[in-house]
Amino acid sequence: MKDEIHLPSLELFSAIAVQCLKRDHEKRPPITDIVSALETCLKIQEAFEVKARDAKLIQYTLVDFKELCPPGGSNLVILYTTSVKGIRKTSKDCTRIRSLLKSLKVLFQERDIAMHSDFRDELLQMFDKSATVPRLFIKGRYIGGAEEVFRLHENGKFRPLLDGIPNIAEGPCKRCAGARSVVCGKCNGSNMLKSAQGGMTKCTECNKNGLIKCPVCF
Known about the structure:
This protein has helices at residues 7-20, 31-57, 88-103, 117-126, 146-154, and strands spanning 66-67, 77-81, 109-112, 135-138, 141-144, 181-183, 192-194, 200-202, 211-213. By secondary structure, it is an alpha+beta fold.
């Protein structure tokens, strides 16, 4: 019983039980006092069980989340974001999750849907034509957006999900300095190439900004 009942509840329960066992019935407590004491015991015990249950919930594992794996993300922490600041809440939410991951010093891969259309296409395929961000994945499991992630974090349930994830490398990537993109070497960032006919044609290796995904980060 000692592992199942809260000690203050047990002590109060025992005290009222002892009083009920007195040989002289006139010294026994009235039924109203007994009921009141038992109700108090129950409230103390229920409060204890709620706290114990909440403590167990902290031990969330990734299998409790939906299996949904971005391309190449089976062993990674992947955060889909956008660098476009047109929607203030979206931009703020992306920054909040990015900052949280950095503060926890875990290695994560950021996929900016505004910088590379293939990242947007990945989201569209996974979420049935919905590419809203931010969205966080850990080892092929979908954790959620900003609201879900910070609810987990505030309740102490987020950090355990990152167990086994490598610590973030010291300093930014030496190739892209943390930008996750580098200038296309084929067109030198112009997004244009000379065609065989002598005119100009768009480079197929980079995005419209003349950038490609950093080969070190991705």
